[in-house]
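Example record used in the benchmark description.
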Amino acid sequence: MLFYKTLCGFCRYCNIKREGTSIAKLLKPNDRSIQLTQVRLIGVDGAQLGVVSYDRAKELAAEAGEDLVLVSDRSVPPVVRIMNFGKLRYEQKKNLKQQRRSTAVQKVKEVKFRINIDQHDYETKLKHALDFLAKKFRVKVTLAMRGREMAHQDMGYEVIARVSADLAPYADADGKPKLLGRNISVNFAPKPETGRRSAAGDALTGSESKVPQTGKDENNAEA
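Model output (structure tokens):
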């Protein structure tokens, strides 16, 4: 990692993107398509060696036993650096993989439930939540209440408690469920072992309790 940090210390010349991709180009000694006469050279240790001929830059790279890499073709003259190009590409790919993994964990998927949800819909939504957790997404479980359902918040908390119990083997809740407006919500983060595709089936087979129901008239009422 020290090599990568040293490289990034010259970003105004190096122009290497932080997400792991780069316009850096390996300059092969025998590549006749390269039309360069003078270049601004950066040494293997990051020292500025000034403007030299392209042939001299190749000689210095060969003496150092390293590659010559074009890091900024828009500068006048173009900027090249003596470095290990293979090591650069390896570090970039490793950092990109780590950043993609971190980004996936940070994404949040929302799954919404209702107080009067039936067993089939409950199992479908629970499966969606488990699938998201298996893919390392965070999951926000929301119970939305309409009309007179606000008078039955205790039933809403029962549904959330049931979902929390079914997800407990595969995820950790960030805290207690919170009531915000007409919604009760709680966030879940996947546990390290969450990733087995059997998770959804195991949870659904163990989820057979009845869902709290409100009266028919109350369900159709508006606030």
